[in-house]
Amino acid sequence: MDINKLRHSLAHILAHAIQELYPEIKFGIGPAIENGFYYDFEFPKSQNPKPEDLPKIEKKMKEIIRQNIAFKKKLISKTDAKKIFKNQPYKLELIEELKGKKISTYQSGKINQGSQFIDLCQGPHLKSSKEIDLNSFKLTKIAGAYWKGLEKNKMLTRIYGVAFETKKELSDYLKTQQEAEKRDHRLLGQKLELFLSDEEVGAGLPIWQPKGTILRKNIQDYLYRELISQGYEWIISPHIGKLNLWKTSGHWNLYRENMYSPIKIEEEEYMIKPMNCPFHVKVLQSKVRSYKDMPVKYAEFGTVYRYERSGTLHGLTRVRGFTQDDAHIWCTSEQTKQEVTKLLKNGLKILKTFGFKDFEIYLSTRPEKYAGNLAGWQKATNILKQVLQELKLKWQVDPGGGVFYGPKIDIKIKDSLGRLWQCTTIQVDFNLPERFNITYIDQKGKKQQSIMVHRALLGSLERFIGVLIEHYAGAFPFWLSPVQARVIPVGKKHEKYAKKIGEELALAGFRIEVKTENETLSKKIRTGEVEKIPYLLIVGDKELKAKTVSLRKRGKGDIGQIKQSQLCQKFLKELKN
Amino acid sequence: MDINKLRHSLAHILAHAIQELYPEIKFGIGPAIENGFYYDFEFPKSQNPKPEDLPKIEKKMKEIIRQNIAFKKKLISKTDAKKIFKNQPYKLELIEELKGKKISTYQSGKINQGSQFIDLCQGPHLKSSKEIDLNSFKLTKIAGAYWKGLEKNKMLTRIYGVAFETKKELSDYLKTQQEAEKRDHRLLGQKLELFLSDEEVGAGLPIWQPKGTILRKNIQDYLYRELISQGYEWIISPHIGKLNLWKTSGHWNLYRENMYSPIKIEEEEYMIKPMNCPFHVKVLQSKVRSYKDMPVKYAEFGTVYRYERSGTLHGLTRVRGFTQDDAHIWCTSEQTKQEVTKLLKNGLKILKTFGFKDFEIYLSTRPEKYAGNLAGWQKATNILKQVLQELKLKWQVDPGGGVFYGPKIDIKIKDSLGRLWQCTTIQVDFNLPERFNITYIDQKGKKQQSIMVHRALLGSLERFIGVLIEHYAGAFPFWLSPVQARVIPVGKKHEKYAKKIGEELALAGFRIEVKTENETLSKKIRTGEVEKIPYLLIVGDKELKAKTVSLRKRGKGDIGQIKQSQLCQKFLKELKN
């Protein structure tokens, strides 16, 4: 079965049901979408439905479905169409705009005979509502939506539904949704005090609170060390630079809709950077490079700013300012294969370190608009293919999905709910080396154009941390946790001992808090659990006397006592897991 | 002796000498300046002097000085002045602009009797050139300068001189200057590959090269740990935010000339941030604060962008984009004294860690334009005074030098050449807490306005590193050095051993390079010395056999052999120094 046919037909049946329940309704449009469908309506004032009306509408839809109504396509003249839709101003507007003499419509049910509905529609649809499992769809929510998506137009009422082929698929989807809602990084980010979204600062410009900053620093520190051991050097570039850089790079021409407006300084135009590449090229070109220097690898946690429509912004996963774990590699064309191989291997290793185990790998090939010659594209694409084959990775082709300057390999990670997130990208570029005249001196003393590889492993820290929060539902692994353990003294007289434990662990480099507030023990434990702290160390009379602590492990509760002197060792072991 | 009188008189004598040597000269103006004087001239084309002409001019000045000419003030009418200066267009322009009936002039030498010179001048001057030590001044350079400093005006020729009371002072000054030139952080920055200034990126927007990034990271890592141990929490804020934030903070009103133009995003204006304060306030206000939470301390390495005229930009010490080691402390008014005391003590400790030993401390009091009431100012200023007194620090008052929102303590550090650099600032603010309504709940459950302290210890990383480079002439202490040691194998057969040594030290966390290039040993040693690497570890036959390295210490040369197994211990010890 074509799932889109099912969803689109359910959109018609929704409209059909609404027509029965609200005869004065005006119809907008109703397409199939990911996981379901929607339909836009203009309800008479005072009749606008509320969430509690959805079951009633769903019931009416099921009545219609049980009638086993057929969906029939019919081509009619504009004049006839205007007659049929004479009371439907939005449909009339669409009819006016349609080109061609004949207008395609779909009728469901029998005209003039019981329940029926007709819509302007190209189809396709199911043959009959017989094909629909009554328990495989559900209306989910009501929202406002501008007619044609334009703010100057009237706000209509959009009713959303989800639909699948089987009841099982629907219930799985709804369960995942419920779990995803609990894990929503925007809610957890607030609850765990990781980051702020503040309307007065601006949408899509998160501020990292202290705990979020530690989480982020843990990730950065790990990558910093890891990349140094892989032969990268780190650099830091400014957040603004002359517009001309972006003209040379080609971004001003091909990427301008994502860039902010220029800032004028003493008659010269500067841009807030949408990417770091031109600055990295400048550092590379600060001296002459020989084949002996290649490959050169520069990495930066580069914070870039790109325009996104406010409607598309979402927590940390879709923002206007974000920090890429960016790097560029310049190598000879002979080195390309070896470098991409290393990148892919090390990239997967790093993603695994963060707890991701399943990946989908894509090879994106030449798009319609491209720079460079076909032979170059062929060669680069073949290199990427070879790498994927030799590493024995499962991958699929994304035809035409490459960047204008070259083909790429993308890695999507699968989170604990099975959702896919685009993270790693490895892009081979033969365009910028030409535009910026990036060369090295070969063995014969001649200038050669170098290959440039752009790559981000996590993608952006913001997005990756957003995904991490949802993947772990905020219960981060020990090495990433902003607070790794909290010492909880049972009473006043245990505070000194608690503080001593805290100080010793902090001195060993662990992130420890000591909770001396005047609260009950159970309240302190509950708070620690809500904050998803990996270990709670309880110290009372017994522990003080025996020089131990009672250990509570996140998700496991009380796991018994441990000698204070062995705590550090235990935590060091935990770090290595 | 009033040194300015001496310098100003020398400016006249310079003009006097030029008049003798170039009779067709047109005079601009010639004031005393820091360390000396200058005079602006319009030379007839083809007569423009070159640096090699300076000794000739100096000789003529000395001839004039030996005549023991007197400086005499004379008030004359505008009409007479115009007659005297009839061939001097710049002087005529100045006469036109002068208000009042009488015009003040200074004559040196006797009119119509041997050598003489007359100038429009308010004085004061020396009585006679007798007072000048012939060996205590020197002409130093020739530069272009627009008439009245305006680009639309004619470019004149400016001759600079330096002058002191005694020959000794002059020679000390010249020696320091020479040393300072060798230590110029712009030259060393390039030579040691620390940072780039690239015209195509934009003036005042340095890019940190790999070695500069390590230097900067060493400083940041140290401050990060140090401030955590002092109870700070770290946050990260975006580089742009809604204009309205800066209106609320008062910066849009009082600081606009240092801010860049707004960026429009979906009809809303955003600013690239000139400071971090409003973002820090937002994090503070993300939850209700009680007196038990105070003080709250947030720190950030916040990169800000401020407008500076391109003519004033200078390497790293005056830039348009810089990273403040910024922090804000919110406390109750009772805690202010204690917090400022801690700040000052810890601030001095941190500056000493970087090798600075001499400081000048200033208490800056209420400026003419100020916010808040007099009693509040009095109280805050008294607190700062008390802190300075109780810490038994030497300090001086900078009357009216405070910020509009409160008084401050500034620390200037003295570098190895005795030059002073403004670094630390500790500012008490009772203005922003009012504007942003920053409160906490006191013991009685009532809202109280909190005190806000702004502070930067190093000032900005860029500026501080610029000073560090000059202070150490690029020979950074071991803990800060981008490369701490370089292993140099004498020949091919020692490379394996060299790499092993390098790997072991790197594993222990040291920053080590292994130099395997095919160069002579002496060349490799020379390169290492030019790069100012603290230790060079030479390994040849002898060392390979004995499992040792020959150690060369920066500035000391060969300091003998050491067991390879003891290297790590030696370096760890070096770190603790």
Oligomer: homodimer
- Average pLDDT level of chain A: 94
Biggest interface and which pair forms it? A-B, 53 and 53 residues
Alpha-beta classification of chain A: alpha+beta
Number of domains of chain A: 3
CATH topology of the largest domain in chain A: BirA Bifunctional Protein, domain 2
Describe the structure.
Two copies of one chain form a homodimer. Chain A is of the alpha+beta class and 577 residues long. Chain A has three domains: 3-182, Threonyl-tRNA Synthetase, Chain A, domain 2; 192-239 and 274-472, BirA Bifunctional Protein, domain 2 (2-Layer Sandwich), CATH 3.30.930; 485-576, Rossmann fold (3-Layer(aba) Sandwich). Chain A is built from 18 helices and 28 strands. In chain A, the strands form seven sheets. Chain A has an eight-stranded mixed β-sheet. Chains A and B meet through strand 10, helix 7, strand 11, strand 12 and strand 13 of A and strand 10, helix 7, strand 11, strand 12 and strand 13 of B.
How is the topology of this model organized?
The structure is a homodimer of 577-residue chains.
Chain A: H1 3-21, E1 26-27, E2 32-33, E3 36-42, H2 54-66, E4 71-77, H3 78-84, H4 89-97, E5 102-110, E6 113-120, E7 137-146, E8 155-163, H5 167-183, H6 185-191, E9 195-196, E10 207-208, H7 210-229, E11 233-234, E12 240-242, H8 243-249, H9 251-254, E13 263-265, E14 268-272, H10 277-284, E15 296-305, E16 321-331, H11 336-353, E17 358-364, H12 374-390, E18 395-398, E19 408-414, E20 420-429, H13 432-435, E21 439-441, E22 447-449, E23 451-460, H14 461-472, E24 485-489, H15 495-507, E25 512-514, H16 521-530, E26 535-539, H17 541-546, E27 548-553, E28 557-563, H18 567-576
Helix pairs in contact in A: 1-2, 6-14, 11-12
